[in-house]
Amino acid sequence: MRKMTIIGAGGWGTALANVLAKKGFSVTLWARRKEICDNLFKTRENVNYLPGVIIPANVHFTNDFEEAVKDSELVLMATPSMVMRDIIKKIKPFITNNTVVVSASKGFEQSTLLRMSEVIAEELGEDHPIAVLSGPNHAEEVGKDLPTATVVASKKKSTAEFVQDVFMSPKLRVYINPDIIGVEVGGALKNIIALGAGISDGLKFGDNTKSALLTRGLTEIARLGVAMGADTHTFAGLAGLGDLIATCTSQHSRNWRCGNQIGQGKKLKEILEGSNMVVEGVRTTEAVQELSKKYDIQMPISEELYKVLFEEKDAKTAVIDLMLRGKTHETEEVVRTERENW
């Protein structure tokens, strides 16, 4: 039986382990503590992160990196972005040059501003087969076998097609995309806009407000992505618009929930201390502040959210400041020639 490995026993890692197990693979799910593994083995349910979903018998649990990774054809990283480099270093001795490593983490490394695939490549080498998986994929729905689509990106088409074949199922449709930059940027930055969407809902603003936020938010995501080398078309796809819609409109989204509580008046520190899950959008907002400076681009929504999160700016005041920004055109480069001739 072919072996596949998932590193990270959160909701997303557990849901993907189930997908692979139902396809008949031998799946090893790595969790960071032995007591977590023991509980998963006894109950066959991830009560803390994916309650109500039974884990198949061909999913095995371990907190040992060698046992998890050795002889595996594919290792999928479903860990928070802040620990990606550390874990890659630890599994490196146990993988071969042919082991495909897939990032399902959405964020940037704070100290370097690198995307997750870049972090992996720095540790394993640029020629190592690396892919990323992203899209509108709530773990709660994937775990319940609800129809879902996702996208896999890699610099190498053969690597993307391999991952596509591994994960494709009657309930999970997998597309491939060569634009690894765009897929990662879209997956990371939508969490910032989801924080804003949650704040908007917490403030009891309406559909008009959130629609404008999502639309202009997507413009910001694409603006940074293109500056970093992405294909603008990627942001109209699953890792861009698709993931943005899912994350900004669903109560499954931890970023939306965090923003919603901020909109209701809670402090960020209080919210994070009361959650057992990582809210990636918070760290990503910090990283994007630096990235916008690095690439010399304007990201007004992200900037105002940074001020709300880290400078205790009043959320309503931030909205007013966004609304009263200097007048501008909706479209950018595409119609520059036309508008100059008005």
From TrEMBL:
<keyword id="KW-0520">NAD</keyword>
<feature type="domain" description="Glycerol-3-phosphate dehydrogenase NAD-dependent N-terminal">
    <location>
        <begin position="3"/>
        <end position="159"/>
    </location>
</feature>
<dbReference type="InterPro" id="IPR011128">
    <property type="entry name" value="G3P_DH_NAD-dep_N"/>
</dbReference>
<feature type="binding site">
    <location>
        <position position="139"/>
    </location>
    <ligand>
        <name>NAD(+)</name>
    </ligand>
</feature>
<feature type="binding site">
    <location>
        <position position="106"/>
    </location>
    <ligand>
        <name>substrate</name>
    </ligand>
</feature>
<feature type="binding site">
    <location>
        <position position="253"/>
    </location>
    <ligand>
        <name>sn-glycerol 3-phosphate</name>
    </ligand>
</feature>
<feature type="binding site">
    <location>
        <begin position="254"/>
        <end position="255"/>
    </location>
    <ligand>
        <name>substrate</name>
    </ligand>
</feature>
<dbReference type="InterPro" id="IPR008927">
    <property type="entry name" value="6-PGluconate_DH-like_C_sf"/>
</dbReference>
<dbReference type="InterPro" id="IPR006168">
    <property type="entry name" value="G3P_DH_NAD-dep"/>
</dbReference>
<dbReference type="GO" id="GO:0047952">
    <property type="term" value="F:glycerol-3-phosphate dehydrogenase [NAD(P)+] activity"/>
</dbReference>
<keyword id="KW-0547">Nucleotide-binding</keyword>
<keyword id="KW-0444">Lipid biosynthesis</keyword>
<feature type="binding site">
    <location>
        <position position="49"/>
    </location>
    <ligand>
        <name>NADPH</name>
    </ligand>
</feature>
<feature type="binding site">
    <location>
        <position position="254"/>
    </location>
    <ligand>
        <name>NADPH</name>
    </ligand>
</feature>
<dbReference type="Pfam" id="PF01210">
    <property type="entry name" value="NAD_Gly3P_dh_N"/>
</dbReference>
<feature type="active site" description="Proton acceptor">
    <location>
        <position position="190"/>
    </location>
</feature>
<dbReference type="GO" id="GO:0005829">
    <property type="term" value="C:cytosol"/>
</dbReference>
<feature type="binding site">
    <location>
        <position position="255"/>
    </location>
    <ligand>
        <name>sn-glycerol 3-phosphate</name>
    </ligand>
</feature>
<dbReference type="GO" id="GO:0046167">
    <property type="term" value="P:glycerol-3-phosphate biosynthetic process"/>
</dbReference>
<keyword id="KW-0560">Oxidoreductase</keyword>
<dbReference type="Pfam" id="PF07479">
    <property type="entry name" value="NAD_Gly3P_dh_C"/>
</dbReference>
<dbReference type="GO" id="GO:0008654">
    <property type="term" value="P:phospholipid biosynthetic process"/>
</dbReference>
<dbReference type="GO" id="GO:0006650">
    <property type="term" value="P:glycerophospholipid metabolic process"/>
</dbReference>
<dbReference type="GO" id="GO:0051287">
    <property type="term" value="F:NAD binding"/>
</dbReference>
<comment type="pathway">
    <text>Membrane lipid metabolism; glycerophospholipid metabolism.</text>
</comment>
<feature type="binding site">
    <location>
        <position position="139"/>
    </location>
    <ligand>
        <name>NADPH</name>
    </ligand>
</feature>
<feature type="binding site">
    <location>
        <position position="33"/>
    </location>
    <ligand>
        <name>NADPH</name>
    </ligand>
</feature>
<dbReference type="InterPro" id="IPR036291">
    <property type="entry name" value="NAD(P)-bd_dom_sf"/>
</dbReference>
<feature type="binding site">
    <location>
        <position position="106"/>
    </location>
    <ligand>
        <name>sn-glycerol 3-phosphate</name>
    </ligand>
</feature>
<feature type="binding site">
    <location>
        <position position="135"/>
    </location>
    <ligand>
        <name>sn-glycerol 3-phosphate</name>
    </ligand>
</feature>
<dbReference type="InterPro" id="IPR006109">
    <property type="entry name" value="G3P_DH_NAD-dep_C"/>
</dbReference>
<feature type="binding site">
    <location>
        <position position="32"/>
    </location>
    <ligand>
        <name>NADPH</name>
    </ligand>
</feature>
<feature type="binding site">
    <location>
        <position position="280"/>
    </location>
    <ligand>
        <name>NADPH</name>
    </ligand>
</feature>
<keyword id="KW-0963">Cytoplasm</keyword>
<keyword id="KW-0443">Lipid metabolism</keyword>
<feature type="binding site">
    <location>
        <position position="190"/>
    </location>
    <ligand>
        <name>sn-glycerol 3-phosphate</name>
    </ligand>
</feature>
<dbReference type="GO" id="GO:0005975">
    <property type="term" value="P:carbohydrate metabolic process"/>
</dbReference>
<feature type="binding site">
    <location>
        <position position="106"/>
    </location>
    <ligand>
        <name>NADPH</name>
    </ligand>
</feature>
<protein>
    <recommendedName>
        <fullName>Glycerol-3-phosphate dehydrogenase [NAD(P)+]</fullName>
        <ecNumber>1.1.1.94</ecNumber>
    </recommendedName>
</protein>
<feature type="binding site">
    <location>
        <position position="254"/>
    </location>
    <ligand>
        <name>NAD(+)</name>
    </ligand>
</feature>
<keyword id="KW-1208">Phospholipid metabolism</keyword>
<comment type="function">
    <text>Catalyzes the reduction of the glycolytic intermediate dihydroxyacetone phosphate (DHAP) to sn-glycerol 3-phosphate (G3P), the key precursor for phospholipid synthesis.</text>
</comment>
